[in-house]
Structure formats: C-alpha cells, structure tokens
Design a protein that fits this description.
Helix content is 38%, strand content 21%. It has 543 residues and is α/β, with parallel strands linked by helices. A five-stranded antiparallel sheet has the order 10-14-13-12-11. Strands 3-5-6-7 form a four-stranded parallel sheet, covered by helices on one side. Strands 17-18-19-20 form a four-stranded mixed sheet. The longest helix is centred in the N-terminal third of the chain and has 21 residues.
Length: 543
C-alpha cells in the first residue's frame, strides 16, 4: 500500500481508513515502511505546531525540515510544559498545537503528583488506532478469541473525573480507552460499562468483578494491564466460592450497593441457576473451582509483561491453565501508546510508527539522539517522542531495549524507568540489570517469587522477596543470591523474606488519588525498609 502524501488528510488518518487492507494483506507494508511513515508523521505534526506558543517560544515555529526541527527544538520533559498546560486548562488557545483539546488525561504516576496531558482529536485517534491494530493482530494470531458468543474481561479504571476550568472533561487514560471500546461493542464484555464507573469501596468492587467473570462460562479473553489485579480476582473466587455461587443462583450481590447503583447493574446480573449448579458440582467434586473447568474456553491474556508488572504477571500465570496464550499489551503511558507486540511471550514489539516521531538517546552516551533505523540491536536507550497532541522531543525517562527489527521498524521493549538506579559502593546498577540478576536467582534457587525489590543498605544490595509458596527455602535462596552477586562483583546486604500479605499491603500503601491495583506500578527499588511486621526472616550478609 502506498500512502498518498499529497492528500490533505494526515498520515495517521490515511492509515486509519485503510485498516481493512492491512488486515487482509498482512502488516508487512506497515512495518516495512516504518521510517517513511515516521517522516510523514513528523511533517504532519510540525504543520500543526508552527502557530503554537510552545514552538514560538522554543525557536522552532517556522522550521521546514526534519533536520531543522531536530537542530532547533530542545529535548524536553514534563516540567517544560507545566506553564503551557496550566494556561491551557484555563483557556484552550493553541498553547501546544493548533489542534483543539478534546479532553485531558490525568496521570498520577509513581510520584503521586498529578500530571495533565491535553489530548487532541489526532492524539486520541493515534491511541485508538494502536488499540485497534493490536486487537486485529490478536484475532489473527489467536483465532479462538474471535467467536462472537465469547466474552472479554477488560480491566480498566473509569471513575469519572472533574472538568478543567475551561469546561473540557478530564479522564484517566484507561478510562477514555474503555469508554470508546464499550460504546462500540458493549455485548463483548463480561460486565457493563456502568460497573466501571461505579464508585464503590475497592474490596466490594473486586468482589463484584470476580462475581461477573465467574458467572460467565464463555469468558475467553482477558486484557488487564496489571495482572496483580486478576490475581485479586482469583483470590476472591478461592476465598468465597459458596457465597458467589449463591449470588449467581439468586441474581444478587453480597455487597452493600447504593440503590441507584444496583438499579443500573441489575439488568446485567440476572439469576442463573444452571450456572450455579454447574459451579457447585465442580466445587463438590474438587473441593475448589478448577479454572480450566470453570472457563473451558479461556484462551488468551493480554497484559504488561515488563518491569514489576511483568514480574507479577508471571506469578499470576502460574495459577492459570497452561493452555492460555499470552501476548504483551502495547507499551505506553499517558503520553501515548508506542508498540505493537504480536508474538507469544515476548514483551518486545515493533514501534507504532504512526503515533508520533521517535528518537533514541543511548544510555551509554555514545551519541546524541538517533532515529529508529540507527539504533543497535541489544542496546539500551531513553525513548524520546514527538506526538500529535503537542509534546516535542519529549523524554519519557523510560529505558527501552532494542530487540531487532520488523522491516525497517525497530522492535523495542520497555525495561525500567531511567530513575531506577542503584548507587552501590563500587558501582551503579540499573533496574533492568537487577531484574536480569533476580531472574537468574529465581531459576537457580527454584524458588518462584511473587515479587522482588531492591533496597540499598550501606552501599550494598539488599533484596526484598515475597515467595510464591511458604515452602521456599530461604537459606537456599540466599545462597543463590550470594553466588550470583559475587560473580558480578556486586556487594550483597540482606535478604528480607516477606509474608504472603506483603504484596497486597504494598499495593494498599500506594492506593491514593483514586488509584487502584490495576493502575499502580509497584516500585522496583524501595527507598525505605520493608514493613517490619511482614518480615518473616532476615538473612544477613555475615551469616
């Protein structure tokens, strides 16, 4: 397929209108021409940037070429945009781009400080196009998710937020995506959109989500950014099977719902005695609800598979049927969605070249930023993006690893934040290096872990671990840790072996500003000692 650069429509819009072509003929044309798409996208963005206050005040309002833009536009981060966004929230007047703001996205991130991102029509289209293409690829790769009588569980946070001072709505990133998906195909989901917006205590809402998905025998596909949330769902099913079966039998919910909420949800939760009988028979026979029999058609999981989220996903995966296929969801953030993973069990994916213009700043400082055809396989970079919603050469402060190419499009994987650095007494250790080290320890010790984190004590690496099982041999785990850190010249401190409630307690400690488990990325590096009351055993360096 040839893109017509003479049309008035943007490259993004042309691609959106031709999705059927790619679905039928394959995605090679999209990835083979990644750099051409990149150049066309940047030209589109610059045409809309020239009259913005940010471009004028930063010296690139009238640039005519990519080279001129890269020479004049500074590398930026969120602090560079704060005054412009603050003004935009009061009066949307072209502070960042000539496009109008259609809504704002709110992100609290790891810092718990609210960050607002104006989203334009084209910025929203880029996000939606990424979602659509990823879903189409999944349908082709996992045909069993396609039948129209199957059901999807999509886990998102959709609590409505306030309006900006200028009257434009404010939404969470996942909430906006959910709204658009449910509006198009409400019949595909295990629960109604009204459930996502219901303002309820988190435990009540988790119980209800578990109830909805347990009731649905045709549950077939799960999309959940943070699989720790689905682990909570499984916990509820394990803890309260009899109560849930009775609720399914009678069409009730054993939580204290406001009457108006129940009136909204009741039509979607009718009594189902036949399903209750089915589940009761399984419980009577096995003493539990075996998931492969509860959901015989469960075939697919799409989730984050990198960083601490990837670590927690592995722990939940060990609880699911081995037959379920896993494909990573797009790596993204409030600023956009950036990759299109399409291989089983591979967190890396081709860049979505149509969503913005990408640059890569080598972590080893061997050069300035390079484009995606100039990156080296296996090398680590900070990712810089220019978007349709008015971010220019914006450093995400994310570290990505290049995992080869699809056509001329780089395959990348998010590995950690650039702030994830351990300053030890004799060296600096990046978060991704700690992750690699702990994967070796996990394999060597044969002790599967729900979560592991780093903590620096007296210039040495201490490690916090919650094992999957109580029978994990702590001494054997520490011996593996000693051997592997010694081989890398890393000074080792203590091993903190944590109680099984540690991960859940940690999530609750970060649940603020309306955030819930599915929106929280737990820190890879802790800045303080773990909760003393949850420490089961400490293995000291001198022991």
């Amino acid at each position: 397929m040839q893109l017509c650069t003479e049309q008035k429509k943007t490259t993004l819009e042309q691609l959106s209108e031709n999705l059927g072509y790619f679905y039928k003929n394959g995605w090679d044309a999209l990835f083979d021409n990644g750099m051409a798409i990149q150049d066309a996208v940047l030209a589109d963005i610059l045409a809309m940037a020239k009259d913005s206050a940010y471009a004028k005040e930063n010296g690139f309002a009238n640039v005519q070429t990519k080279e001129e833009f890269l020479q004049k536009a500074p590398i930026s981060d969120y602090n560079d945009y704060r005054p412009y966004i603050r003004d935009n929230l009061k009066n949307d007047a072209g502070q960042l781009t000539a496009q109008e703001t259609v809504y704002y996205l709110l992100s609290t991130g790891m810092s718990n400080q609210g960050k607002y991102y104006p989203e334009t029509r084209l910025g929203a289209l880029a996000r939606q196009l990424n979602i659509d293409i990823w879903n189409m690829m999944v349908m082709q790769t996992v045909p069993t998710v396609n039948p129209t009588n199957m059901k999807l569980m999509a886990v998102m946070t959709c609590l409505p937020l306030d309006q900006a001072e200028n009257g434009i709505v404010v939404r969470r990133t996942s909430g906006q995506a959910a709204k658009e998906l449910w509006e198009r195909h409400p019949q595909f989901y295990v629960y109604p959109y009204e459930f996502l917006e219901a303002q309820l205590p988190e435990d009540d809402k988790d119980y209800m989500a578990a109830l909805y998905v347990l009731k649905e025998k045709k549950f077939n596909k799960l999309c959940c950014n943070n699989m720790a949330y689905f682990g909570n769902i499984l916990d509820w099913i394990e803890k309260r099977p009899n109560t849930m079966i009775q609720d399914i039998r009678t069409g009730t919910m054993s939580v204290n719902l406001p009457i108006e909420t129940w009136e909204q949800l009741a039509p979607s939760f009718e009594a189902d005695p036949a399903r209750a009988d089915e589940l009761q028979a399984l419980l009577d026979e096995y003493g539990k609800l075996p998931l492969e029999k509860v959901w015989p058609d469960f075939a697919f999981v799409g989730t984050w598979m990198s960083g601490t989220a990837g670590m927690l996903a592995k722990a939940v995966r060990r609880r699911l049927p081995a037959s379920v296929k896993w494909i990573a969801e797009s790596y993204g953030a409030s600023e956009g969605m950036f990759t299109l993973p399409r291989e089983f069990d591979n967190a890396a994916g081709p860049l979505a070249s149509f969503v913005g213009y990408f640059e890569f700043l080598p972590l080893d400082q061997s050069s300035g930023p390079v484009n995606m055809t100039e990156v080296e396989i296996g090398k680590y970079y900070e990712l810089i993006v220019t978007t349709y919603s008015g971010l220019y050469r914006y450093n995400l402060h994310d570290i990505v690893r290049v995992d080869g190419f699809t056509g001329d499009t780089a395959n990348v994987e998010f590995v950690c934040r650039s702030s994830d650095i351990l300053e030890l007494r004799n060296q600096r250790l990046y978060g991704f290096e700690f992750l690699e080290l702990m994967e070796q320890v996990q394999n060597d010790s044969q002790c599967p872990m729900t979560i592991y984190q780093a903590y620096v004590e007296d210039g040495a690496l201490s490690v916090i671990v919650q094992p999957d099982h109580a029978e994990c041999n702590g001494e054997g785990l520490y011996t593996s840790l000693q051997r592997i850190t010694a081989s890398k010249g890393i000074p080792l401190g203590n091993l903190y072996l944590m109680d099984k409630q540690y991960c859940a307690t940690l999530f609750k400690s970060f649940t603020q500003f309306g955030r819930t488990t599915q929106t929280i990325k737990l820190p890879l590096i802790m800045k303080r000692k773990p909760f003393e009351e949850l420490v089961k055993q400490i293995y000291h360096a001198e022991s």
